[in-house]
Amino acid sequence: MISLSDHIRKIAKKTNYEIEEIKIFFSAPKPERPSSETLNIEKGPAQEANFQWIAYQVLFTKNKSDYYIYNISLNPDGKEKGPAIVFPSDSDWSGENKNRPAKDITPGDIKRAFPKVLKGPNLFPLREYQTVYVNTHESDKGKSYSGKEFKKFFDNDFYVVVSKSKELKNPFGKLIGMKYPKEEEK
Predict the structure, then answer these.
(1) Model pTM?
(2) How many CB atoms lie within 10 A of CB 36?
(3) pLDDT band at residue 41, thresholds of 50, 70 and 90?
(4) Distances from the Cα of 14 to the Cα of 8, 10, 107, angstroms
């Protein structure tokens, strides 16, 4: 009997794609000195949030020599936003070709090659791939976190994901409260 992960590896080997690293971009106040900073300010603390997802990128190789980046922008709540693109790169994550999509690889090819990683997308990737979380918030701009560090600093009740939902959740999806309807002005 073949396991799902073995099946996925077989598909990836057939296509000669290998994931090198995953970067997930987000915006949140600096965790070492959290404050009451918010990203979207409503008229009442029950509506405020201070964490949003920005983008999801996968650096991968084709035939172990050609580097590409799969890039998808994210809505603040982590859902995919707009079309994904694949563009040529190098091992240092060069983005100079971002406006010139790859002609021989489509985003669909990469999603089919790595369905476990790119389903959703998976904001908490599997241990088998190195994942780096990069903060874009001005208080912590460019700071990178390993998966373990990200969980340590952001899996708490202080960080609330920007969302249109009535549920207030932290970046790991833990329910931490509910938004209350705004009071009507009389």
Answers:
(1) 0.82
(2) 9
(3) very low
(4) 10, 6, 17
